[in-house]
C-alpha cells in the first residue's frame, strides 16, 4: 500500500485538488456540472478559423449553433449582440477582437479575462470569458483558446 502512494505525482495531485477546490468555489459540485456550463473554442487568430468548438451551456436553447457559422468572430459577435447587456457590449467586442488578441500576444500578455452580464430569457447570468494565446511551433500560427463560464453561482454566493 505504501508503495502505491509513493508513486503518486504529488504535483499532479495538487493541481487536481486545486481544480476541485476552484470548481466548488464557483458553485459547481462536479467537473461534469462545470463542463455543462461552459463554452470552449479554439481558433486561429489570423484566419479566424474555428479549430475546435464545444457549447455546453444548455440553459439557453436558442443559443447560436456552431454549425451555422464558419468563422469564430461571426459566432462571438452574434452572441455578444444577442445576449450581453448593452452597457458591456463594447467592452466584450473589444476583448475578443483580433486586433486586441494580436496586440496582447505581441506585448507578452498570453491570458486575460473579463466578466459581463448576459440576458438569457428572463434570467440575468454572469459570464467570465478567458482566453489563452499560444503560437503553434510547427505552423507559426497564433491560436487562441477561449472559455466562457457561467459564474452566476459564484457571484450569488
Which structural class should the secondary elements be placed in? alpha+beta
The appropriate CATH architecture of the largest domain is: 2-Layer Sandwich
For the biggest β-sheet, the strand order reads 2-1-5-4-3
What overall geometry do the principal axes of the alpha carbons give? globular
- The name CATH uses for the topology of the largest domain is Beta-Lactamase
Estimated radius of gyration: 18 Å
> Regarding CATH, which class of the largest domain?
Alpha Beta
Helix proportion of residues, in percent?
40-55%
Residue ranges: pLDDT <50 for 5 or more in a row?
Answer: 59-64
What profile does the largest beta sheet have?
5 strands, antiparallel
CATH superfamily of the largest domain, by name, is PAS domain
Give an overview in words.
Helix 4 runs antiparallel to helix 5 (86-96). The chain folds into 2 domains: 1-35, no CATH class; 38-156, 2-Layer Sandwich (Beta-Lactamase). Strand 4 and strand 5 (142-150) form a beta hairpin. Helices cover 40% and strands 29% of the residues. With 157 residues, it is an alpha+beta fold. It is globular, with a radius of gyration of 18 Å. It is built from 7 helices and 5 strands; from the N terminus they run αααββαααβββα.
Amino acid at each position: 500500500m505504501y508503495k502505491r502512494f509513493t508513486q503518486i505525482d504529488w504535483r499532479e495531485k495538487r493541481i487536481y485538488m486545486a481544480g476541485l477546490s476552484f470548481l466548488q468555489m464557483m458553485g459547481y459540485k462536479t467537473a461534469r456540472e462545470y463542463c455543462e456550463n461552459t463554452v470552449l473554442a479554439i481558433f486561429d487568430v489570423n484566419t479566424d478559423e474555428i479549430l475546435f468548438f464545444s457549447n455546453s451551456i444548455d440553459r439557453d436553447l436558442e443559443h447560436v449553433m456552431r454549425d451555422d457559422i464558419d468563422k469564430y468572430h461571426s459566432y462571438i459577435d452574434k452572441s455578444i449582440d444577442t445576449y450581453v447587456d448593452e452597457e458591456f457590449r463594447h467592452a466584450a467586442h473589444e476583448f475578443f477582437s483580433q486586433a486586441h488578441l494580436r496586440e496582447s500576444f505581441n506585448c507578452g500578455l498570453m491570458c486575460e479575462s473579463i466578466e459581463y452580464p448576459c440576458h438569457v430569457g428572463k434570467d440575468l447570468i454572469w459570464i467570465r470569458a478567458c482566453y489563452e494565446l499560444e503560437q503553434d511551433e510547427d505552423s507559426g500560427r497564433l491560436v487562441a483558446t477561449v472559455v466562457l463560464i457561467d459564474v452566476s453561482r459564484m457571484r450569488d454566493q
